[in-house]
Amino acid sequence: MDHMIRRATKHALLAVALCATTGIAVAQPLLPRHPEYERVINLDTYEAGLLEASGHPNEVERWHGIWAYDNGRMDEARRHFERAAYYGDKLSQHVLSLMCWNGDGGARDPVQAYIWADLAAERGNIADLLQVRERIWSQLTPSQQEQALDDGLAFYRRYGDAAAMPRTNRELRRFLRNRTGSRVGLVTSRVSISLGRPDVFQAAGGGARLTPGPHGASGDRFYADARTRPGAYWAAEDLSVRTLLRQIEQGQVDVGPVTPAKDSRPAE
């Protein structure tokens, strides 16, 4: 079990690194600092990622968490991933689960590891997240399982989708309202920004593939529905996480049929 969870940690943190690069090829996973490890991201990539994440607090905090983790600052990384989780970021919740399991930045806490894993798998549409949750649950003692169920209620009130997604949805609407220029201008102009994550496209036959993000984007792309409309945004986020984890697990880009994500927008 420990081997499987450590392998899952490597996969999840490499997925974070994939989100943090302008391409999809990353030589090393995110690991604690060690002289023989190369840095996963550099300062330019980090700053470009923050620019691209503008208006998306979950992504901004995820970037800060990646940068802190890559620099060996585990306590700081955990704080940023928790802030991302506060905005419903499932990848950050997954990483927090694995950090708690392995004791990154503190003592091992299998109970919190399960709670974060349960939150990460809350939507039930990403098999890799469900699998890690069940693996962790199977390794808890009966008393730990009972504690996880009891303690998890407070976590869900703060980090569950019912509470977290409306926070991000408000920020997405604010981001869209604050865009500049006319719609005609947005279509024809380019936004000067480097994109800090790969783009996921639906391929023919219902699959998905990753392509390196461009070094700039037109305004209509930067403010696309998948970046500004809550329902489309959450569906795109789920597809990104599913594709990244599946690609790393299988060593390939094609991930097979994509399960449509439910429209998770809360009632306004």
TrEMBL record:
Keywords: Signal. It comes from the Bacteria. Gene3D superfamilies: Tetratricopeptide repeat domain (1.25.40.10). Residues 1-27 form the signal peptide. InterPro entries: TPR-like_helical_dom_sf. This is Sel1 repeat-containing protein. It comes from Marilutibacter chinensis.
